[in-house]
Amino acid sequence: MAITPSSLNQSISEIELLSCPICYEPLSRKGPPGLIMQSICRSSFKCKKCYKSYSTKHNYLDLTVTAGMKKYVEVKSVGTELFRRWFMSFIYEKGYRQFFKRYGFPGPDEEFKMAQNYFKPAEDGVIVDVSCGSGLFAMRFAKSGTYSGVVALDFSENMLLQCYDYIKRDPVPLATDLVLLRADVSRLPFASCSVDAIHAGAALHCWPSPSNAIAEITRVLRSGGIFVGTTFLRSSLSRTFWIFKPLNERVLPSGNYSTEEEIEDLCTSCGLINYSSKIEKSFIIFSAQKP
Ligand SMILES: C[S@@+](CC[C@H](N)C(=O)[O-])C[C@H]1O[C@@H](n2cnc3c(N)ncnc32)[C@H](O)[C@@H]1O
Question: How far apart are the CA of 200 and the centre of ligand 1, in A?
Fold first, then answer.
């Protein structure tokens, strides 16, 4: 049986994509319909099961478990907290990201082309750019006109604000509207089997638990849906010579750096199939599919 993107069967406004990050039940919505930022900003959302309310803050919808909490403050791991800083969101595209070239990252334009090749079976569907940062790939997906819906998701409030600022200033119009969501990759606010494609650029090593994240990505992908990620590989030295392992871990204290074998194991152990990858120095782009 041919697998078709969810949007071919249903228009985007009909799809109940967004769900409560606590109980994964669909959210009831008061306001205009559609996966469009303007209408999402004019809507209020409530979980049909636990009745928790979710609302928009400065042009992004906050769908974290901690949304609306008044006293409780949670501090996440370094890979998450670092990117919540205003300074990091400000310098990210202006300099920090360019530094990745040294490690084999070919640069956003080429990485976008590589990802688009993997995403061919998901064309016309809904794509979520998980850990989108300031939106360098989400904006390219939205400009491409390849998808019926584009969601830019990140845990960092400042990255989402920076992303919104870039959208406003960009003279090239978006072919598809971009929806900004604040969420934790370990608790994705989407219904199970609802998303056609998930992209996660330079993110796996920043996540507090890559295994929880990939389990979540697998849960929300529809059958036939595609996951494409890029990350830095752990130094091959530590793989070959055990003596380098502690050194390697000390040099890279803030990240969950994996080997190629570990990434493939993560994907396949979570039930994804058709794993493939390309490597250049420490850069890896990998793809896997939900059966
Ligand atoms: C190195 S940046 C990558 C940004 C962009 N995707 C790129 O390719 O350049 C890593 C991103 O992961 C996000 N991140 C870290 N922990 C996260 C979490 N628990 N849930 C969602 N995003 C997270 C950070 O906020 C940051 O924007």
Answer: 8
Residue nearest ligand 1's atom 4 by CA = 133
pLDDT in tens, 125-165: 999 999 999 999 999 999 999 999 999 999 999 999 999 99
Which residue's CA is the nearest one to ligand 1's atom 11? 131
Measured at the alpha carbon of residue 46, what is the angle toward residues 60 and 150, in degrees to the nearest 5? Answer: 40
Q: Which residues pair with 197 in a beta bridge?
A: 127, 226
CA-closest residue to ligand 1 atom 16 = 80
For 83, the token pair is: 């990117």
**pTM above 0.85?**
yes
Cβ neighbourhood burial of 290 (10 Å; 0-12, 13-18, 19+): buried
CB 139 within 8 A of CB 146: no
Residue reference for tokens 């036939």: 224
CATH architecture of the domain 74-289 equals 3-Layer(aba) Sandwich (3.40)
Distance in Å, CA 241 to ligand 1 centroid: 30
Per domain, the residue ranges of the chain are 74-289
Asked whether the beta carbons of 148 and 117 are under 8 A apart, the reply is: no
Residues with CB under 6 A from ligand 1: 79-80, 83, 97, 131-133, 136-137, 154-156, 159, 184-185, 201-203, 206-208
Q: What is the 3-state secondary structure (H, E, C) of 153-202?
A: EECCHHHHHHHHHHHHHCCCCCCCCEEEEECCHHHCCECCCCEEEEEECC
d(CA 149, CA 159): 20
Q: In terms of Cα–Cα distance, which of 268, 278, 288, 283 is closest to 236?
A: 283
Alpha helix stretches (DSSP H) within 63-120: 78-81, 86-91, 108-118
pLDDT, tens only, 228-254: 999 999 875 455 445 545 544 544 445
